[in-house]
Amino acid sequence: MEELCGSGGGWTRLAYLDMSDSTVTCPSEFRLYQSGGVRACGRPVTSSGSCVSVQFPSNDISYSQVCGRVTGYQYYTPDAVDNIHGSNHNNLNGNYVDGVSITHGSPRQHIWTLMAGNYEQNVHINYYNCPCANDSTQQVQSFIGDHYFCESGIATGLYQQQLYTSDPLWDGQSCGSAESPCCNVPGIPWFHRDYGNTTTTDYIELRVCGDEATNNEDVPVSYYEIYVQ
Length: 229
Hints:
single chain, mainly beta, six-stranded antiparallel sheet, 36% strand
């Protein structure tokens, strides 16, 4: 495998999804979104917070590094890790984020979180914006630390109950002025964890989560690839 995440070769791909291929279907239990030529996979319809999960076995490969990237889209009003709604804000096993949680093993151990905030600009309530955005009051959970990306898909104006397809999330592009620090982070769009001499054969799990009903918020994914070494 070619060099990834600035860490040489020798990578093995465990997970891959590309919904731009019309023959590809969403993982089991994920719900298909289609809008403006974009196909993406999100949570099944729920009236409260939830997560939907897909697991990728390591096939007994022992690894100490994880590298990957994810593309998602904002549906309506996700608010990153705002803790006003729900009771799972500090629970890695729960719907602690409006976005994507990537973990390994059971009990879950955090690898990376990809969040979706309300707006790219400070045009609404700042505590709904990404924690990395200027003037945001959000605080990331201790189990996340610096291991996250956060972007919004809405530049200005009142949000609508729709999938925002013009600005894909977590690509480090098209960040508004408030959100510019979120795009200015090392590695983006690639996330990378290096555990040094600690190895594991754990499966990797990707969850799409939200702490409110799906008619209020969702963050479906259209693309992911995850590698281990």
